[in-house]
Structures are given as structure tokens and as C-alpha cells.
Amino acid sequence: MKFVQAKEEQLPEIINLYDNVVQVMNENGIDQWGEDYPNPDVLKRDLEEGNLYLLKKDGKIAGAVVLNKEYEPEYKQIPWQDRSGNFLVVHRLCINPSFQGQGISKILLDEIEEFAKTHGYSSIRLDTYIPNEKAMNLYEGQGYERRGKFYFPTHQEPFMAFEKELIHS
């Protein structure tokens, strides 16, 4: 498997990936994402800013994620452990539905952690919709610690903020 920065010519495939993921999430009663998000404009911006990364397996996109230092205003109320200001934020992490159930999400999180360490970050922050039990269990199982609940105005249910402090070897 390869963890690579997305290229412009991959954008149609990436948009299709997120559309498929949203459909599967909605079919499973998880309305974390919808038709309006993540939309092609958001994904195009991620790509143009160089923040969109892919996990490729056998030439296909197995997973995708956006990595940067940007965060939502709601993050300001969270009691983060790492106060250095040197954190990486994970956005729009998804696994291709045809690769789900193969441990790809754990591999992608390992790649994100390696990326963060290589680039000198001291911690990783991310969040997920609390009704998304698979994601909640995944993050806790990979050593991420719950830091607090918050609400986005577009959702009825809360989100959980997670953090993982990194140990550099």
C-alpha cells in the first residue's frame, strides 16, 4: 500500500469515492455527511492546497484524508492536552466501501501518524459524529483519547473530539 498526495487528475475518482461513502453512511443511518458535504468544491480546494492524501491499494483508492492545521471554531472549547500549538488536524477521513472490513482504516491512521511524526507534529486532533460507533471505536482502539463533545449547528447529535499525543523516536 502507498500513502500519497492526491493529484489533480484523480479528482473525479476522489469525488466519486466520497459520494459512495456518503451513500453507504446514509444507508447505515449515519447522517454525518450529506449531499452538501463534502462537496466537489471542498475536495477541489483540498487538492489545490496540497492537503488531500490517498491510501492506494492495487492501484485503487482504498482511503482518503485531508491533513492540515485548520480547525473548526468549535474546537476552541475543547480541553486539549497538547497546548504546544503544533498539532495536525484530520478531516474527511474515509475508506472506500469496497475496501471496508479489511483493516484499511487502521493502516490509514498509522500512515497519518507517521506523516505527523515525519513533519514534526506533537499531536493529532480529529473528531467524529458520536452516532458513528465504528469510527468512535476505531479511534479509541488506535490510542486516541476523548477530549470532549461539541455540536455543529447543522447536526442534532454531538460530535466527539479526539486527540493523540505523539512520541518521537
TrEMBL record:
The keyword Cytoplasm does not apply. InterPro entries: Acyl_CoA_acyltransferase, GNAT_dom, NAT_camello-type. This is Acetyltransferase (GNAT) family protein. Keywords: Transferase. PROSITE patterns: GNAT. GO terms for molecular function: N-acetyltransferase activity. Residues 1-165 form the N-acetyltransferase domain.
